[in-house]
Amino acid sequence: MELRRLTDGDSEELVRVITESLAHLQPWSPWAAGGYDAAAAARFLRESAEEWENGTAFPHAITVDGAIVGVVALMRRAPDLAEIGYWLHPAHTGRGHATAASAQMVELAFGLGGVRRVQIWHDEANVASSGVPRRLGFTEVDRRTPAREPAIGNRVGVDVVWELRR
């Protein structure tokens, strides 16, 4: 597993990987609820480039043998706080890719000036996502209702917040 910065040239591959993953993503990811197409990929890649330039988010392709199998992003939420988000193609879950990618994002976060805390948020019902922060030594610090995102699909509307402090 390797990480690399996303580029405009990734549009077609992202559409394919996300389309193949929709049944897996839709119960948890509001951004995937309406499907995913070339326009959505172009918008995501354009916004990703802008966020890199602004220093507000750093989305990376998670790759295996050069092929995109998911995305992990580090997002600056406050001067001292960054958040990690991730998704994987269902054929690549359970192999440690999300954990390894998130570990790299933790290192990136603590390398940013002023970041003292890194968080991972997930819906309470998404038990699989809780494994990543657990394995990386994060501590559960909160459960928030209402959730930041709508309770669609399998979501129950309770955000579990994990945090790792520098």
In short:
The protein is α+β, with helices and mostly antiparallel strands and 166 residues long. It has a single domain (2-165), classed as Gcn5-related N-acetyltransferase (GNAT) (Aminopeptidase), CATH 3.40.630.
Q: Assign the structural class, choosing from mainly alpha, mainly beta, alpha/beta, alpha+beta, or little secondary structure.
A: alpha+beta
Shape call: globular
How much helicity do the residues have? 25-40%
Mean pLDDT rating: 95
Total domains, how many? 1
- The total count of strands amounts to 7
The major sheet is characterized as: 7 strands, mixed
CATH superfamily: Gcn5-related N-acetyltransferase (GNAT)
The CATH class, by name, is Alpha Beta
The residue ranges in which pLDDT falls below 50 over 5 or more consecutive positions are none
Please provide the ordered H/E string of secondary-structure elements.
EHHEEEHEHEE
Strand content: 25-35%
The rounded distance between the terminal residues' Cα atoms is 25 Å
Tally of helical segments? 4
- Strand order, biggest sheet? 1-2-3-4-5-7-6
Rg: 15 Å
Per the CATH scheme, the topology name is Aminopeptidase
CATH architecture label: 3-Layer(aba) Sandwich
Detailed description of the structure:
This protein is globular. It has a single domain, classed as Gcn5-related N-acetyltransferase (GNAT) (Aminopeptidase), CATH 3.40.630.30. Helix 1 crosses helix 2. The mean pLDDT is 95. The protein has four helices and seven strands, in the order E-H-H-E-E-E-H-E-H-E-E. The protein has a seven-stranded mixed β-sheet, sandwiched between helices. With 166 residues, the chain is of the alpha+beta class.
